[in-house]
Amino acid sequence: MVLFNESKIVKQISVSEAYQICEEITRSASTSFLRSFKSLPVEKRSSVHALYAFCRKVDDIVDGDWLPNLSNLSEEELVSLNQRAEYRAMSLAIKKMSEPLNGDENHFQRVRALLWFRDNLELIEKNITVNHPIFIALKDTSEKFPIRIVDLKLLIEGMEDDLFPTNYESFEDVRSYCFKVASTVGLNLIEIYGYSNPDAREYAEEMGIFLQMVNILRDIKEDRGRGRLYLPTDELKMFDINPDEIGDLNLANTKKWKNFMKHYINRTKTHRNNALNLIPLIEGDSRRNPQMMCAVYSSILLEAEKRNGDVLSRRLQLGFMKKVGFALSALGLWSISTKK
Predict the structure, then answer these.
(1) Any idea which fold 166-340 has?
(2) Nearest to 230 by CA among 296, 290, 158
(3) Count of alpha carbons within 13 Å of 255, Cβ hemisphere only?
(4) Angstrom distance (rounded) from CA 44 to CA 125
(5) 3-state secondary structure (DSSP) of residue 195
(6) How does DSSP classify residue 312?
(7) Where are the domains of the chain?
(8) Residue 326: pLDDT above 60?
(9) Residue 321 has pLDDT above 80, yes or no
(10) Is 282 in contact with 195 (CB distance < 8 Å)?
(11) pLDDT at position 17, please?
(12) pLDDT digits (tens, 9 = 90+) for 202-248
């Protein structure tokens, strides 16, 4: 297996090596998705790895876990990138009417890295090869499948929101964020899976909303520690909850929080049930992949219900064997309780 070490990329790597690196990035993330990818045919699986690696690294940039190596840029290219990144950072701050999270210098580096990723997407659109494994694999994927680069740019735009304190006043605001960071991925995945009914796009959008709404519950404590909250403030207020209370573990035991969580979980189920309509619309050799993801995420949602909405005192997660059990049921008759 080729390890992802940018400092050693001194010459053009092959397409097969690029795909291997994308698979390694996917594997190292240790997510539930890797197991579901194994059910795909080889060509589709490689392309999904490329798409996932792109999304993983964009997310790592925003969280401050990784930055691309820009040492191969010429001095002129670096000066241009820095100037555009400074303008982009200023524009985002004005748009958000807020100071960035995690300090100015760190913020600039992340904005610059995201801008560099966007630049590379535009090069792919122009059929120009970028000497970076993720973009070599993505370019090859775009030649095999009709993925939409514009959606990946929109994903980056959504990730830029995470560089600032969040302030989602309504569910429509939250839904817009979910579309940018998750539905855009689903809309590209179905281009790899294959489909003929145009309704698949609507259900792929719903799938992204469902998965991201579960992610919001799973990561609520971690996100709060980073200055982020992805719950609609107008609905929190409707249940007499102040956003500042989210950091208080005692909130989980209150009636108002349990009522809010019941409301949130029911809405998430609605998106999930809509998303399930996607499965029969995609090509048969690709159905197990989204089916298994739905199974695992449905089980996480069920765990939130069993806890009466307590997602604050401890993180939502499932043991490996429990995940396997739910996934196996998904591969059979979809016996998991998804229609409650």
Answers:
(1) Farnesyl Diphosphate Synthase (1.10.600)
(2) 158
(3) 0
(4) 20
(5) strand
(6) S
(7) 9-145, 166-340
(8) no
(9) no
(10) yes
(11) 97
(12) 999 999 999 999 999 999 988 888 888 999 999 999 999 999 999 88
pLDDT in tens, 188-206: 999 999 999 999 999 999 9
Q: Is the pLDDT of residue 67 over 60?
A: yes
Among positive and negative, which fits the CA dihedral 255, 258, 264, 267? negative
The full length of the chain comes to 340
Sole residue written with tokens 């998904």: 330
Neighbour-count burial for 89-126, b at 16+ CB within 10 Å, e otherwise: beebbeebeeebbeeeeebbbbbbbbbbbbebbeebee
Query: Looking up tokens 């089980």, which residue turns up?
Result: 299
Residue 144, helix vs strand vs coil: helix
CA distance 138 to 118: 13
- Count other C-beta atoms under 10 Å from residue 200's C-beta: 23
Q: Is the pLDDT of residue 2 over 50?
A: no
Q: In Å, what is the CA distance from 19 to each residue of 22, 54, 120?
A: 5, 12, 17
Both tokens of 281, joined, read 């619309």
Rounded mean pLDDT of 1-28? 75
